[in-house]
Specification:
single chain; mainly beta; six-stranded parallel sheet; five-stranded parallel sheet; 2 helices; 19 strands; elongated
Length: about 200
């Protein structure tokens, strides 16, 4: 059983059924009706929506020159968490923005967390900014079954908080926890001998 193929066209009527003649208007609506083994084909266009993958589904764009997933600088773009057997291929994933708070997202472009048998290929991942995870792609608690290949990953950033004043070492530890940061770095300079000064990293 090869599963069902659903189609998405941003210019279509939302009342579509996912067929090639009457495609869905949004990617998430297509994903929400899929079952394991199904494919979602996304036609050329700019899709300004967060995308949450489900297990056993291949999400295929026309190619990174034609099919754009745009975070609009407001949110993370593609979330692949607690799932398996997922493919994401043929997209430009751009302008993801990590945001703090309950309604925000800590990642920028793609988050892969607690996931297995994932394939992320033939995408452009660019211009994404994270709060404390990776800007382009964040991988957390994954193994060698996660394959990331033949992507162009450029111009992504991670948010950095820089103190504008001197502070003690415990301040860095407190801020790592308070800001939910990945790590903190302190450049030390004190009354110690110059050879004893340096860089401290707090996780």
């Amino acid at each position: 059983d090869l599963g069902t193929c659903f189609y998405v066209d941003g210019d279509a009527l939302d009342e579509g059924d996912g067929s090639v003649e009457h495609p869905f208007q949004t990617i998430q609506k297509a994903l929400d009706v899929t079952s394991e083994g199904d494919t979602v084909r996304v036609l050329a266009g700019v899709y300004r929506e967060p995308v949450v993958l489900v297990s056993g589904v291949a999400l295929l764009g026309v190619g990174p020159d034609f099919t754009f997933l745009d975070g609009e600088g407001k949110r993370g773009v593609v979330q692949i968490t607690n799932v398996e057997k997922v493919v994401v291929d043929g997209f430009a994933i751009v302008r993801g923005q990590g945001r703090p708070g309950p309604s925000g997202s800590p990642f920028g472009g793609i988050l892969v967390e607690n996931a297995r048998h994932i394939q992320i290929t033939h995408n452009l991942i660019s211009g994404n900014i994270a709060m404390w995870y990776g800007g382009g792609i964040s991988c957390i608690n994954v193994d060698s079954t996660v394959v990331i290949g033949n992507n162009l990953i450029v111009g992504n950033k991670i948010k950095v908080f820089v103190s504008d004043q001197f502070c003690p070492t415990p301040c860095v530890s407190w801020n790592v926890k308070h800001l939910k940061a990945t790590a903190g770095i302190m450049i030390t300079a004190s009354h110690n001998h110059k050879d004893d000064n340096g860089i401290k990293i707090v996780e």
